[in-house]
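User: Teach me something about this protein's shape.
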Amino acid sequence: MRIKYATKRRLNGIIFILPWLIGFIFFFIIPIINTVIYSFNNVSVRETGGMELQASGFQNYINLFKLEVTTQNQPILRLLIEENQKILVNVPLIVIFSLFLALIINAKFKGRAIVRVIFFLPIILGLDIVSSMLFINNTGLDSASVEAMQSVTAFTNTSISDILLKYAGLPIEIAQFIQDALKNISMIISKSGVQVLIFLAGLQSISPSLYEVARIEGATEYETFWKVTIPATANITFFVSIYTLIDMFLNSPITKEIYNFAFLKSKIGVGSALSVLFVLNEIVFLFLISLFLKKVVKLDYGKY
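Assistant: First, the predicted structure itself:
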C-alpha cells in the first residue's frame, strides 16, 4: 500500500508532537479543567483537606475588575491593557530584529564563523548570566564611566527624536516609537537569541536554486527578499511569532499576580479567573497573528 506524500507528512507531524501530546493529556489537561471550574466558584480549603467549592457564577470575574488590585495597587484592567500594549509593540520588533540578525549572520563574509560564535555564546552560557555581567551596579564604575553612560542616556532621550523630526521629516508619533524601541534595545536583543537560531535554520533550508532563478530573471536584491525569502520563511515567521508571544506571556507580571491571588491572598477563585482571562487573551493574540500572516504571506500548512 502506497501512502500519499501529504498523508505521510501529517503522520510525521503527529509522531513528532506525540510525546508532548501524551504529557499534556496526563499532566496538564486536569489542572486546566480544574482552573476553569475554580474560576466559577468560591474555593476554600477544608480543615480535613481537599477543596470546598461554592458556586458563584461570574462573580470572581466581576470582582477581578471591580474590587481587586495588583500588588502595586493598580487596577487589573489597567495591567492587562499595559501588557497587551507591550506585546503589540515588542513582538513585531523582536521578530523583525531576529530576522534582520539572521540575514546578517547567514550572509557570506570573512570571519563569519567567529561572528556566529561571539553572537551565540551568550545563548549557550545563558542570557541571565550575561545580562547580570553587563548590567553591573553603577557604584562599581569610576566617574568617567558614569559620565559616559549619562551622556549616552541623554543622547537617547533627546537627540534621536530631534534628528528624526528635523532631518527625516517623520511624524512625532513614529519618531517617539523609534526612540522607545531604541531604549529597549537591550531587552530586544536578550529576547531574540532563540528566534535568530530558528530563522537561521529556516534561511539555510531555502533552496539556492530559487535565488539563482531570481538572479537569472533579473530580480534585484530587494525583489528577491520580498518574493523569495519572505514567502519561503512564512511558516518560520509564524512559529517565531508564536514562540515570542508565549515567551512574553510567561514572563509577564500577570503570572506573578495569578500566583499572589491564589497562594498569598488565598483567593483561588479570583486567581483562577485571572488565569482563564490570561489564556483567552493569549489565544486571541495567536489568532490575530495567524490572520495577519495569512494576509501578508501565504502560510503553508502542508497542503500539496
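Now, about its shape. The mean pLDDT is 79. The longest helix spans residues 76-106. If you'd like, I can walk through any region in more detail.
User: That's plenty for now, thanks!
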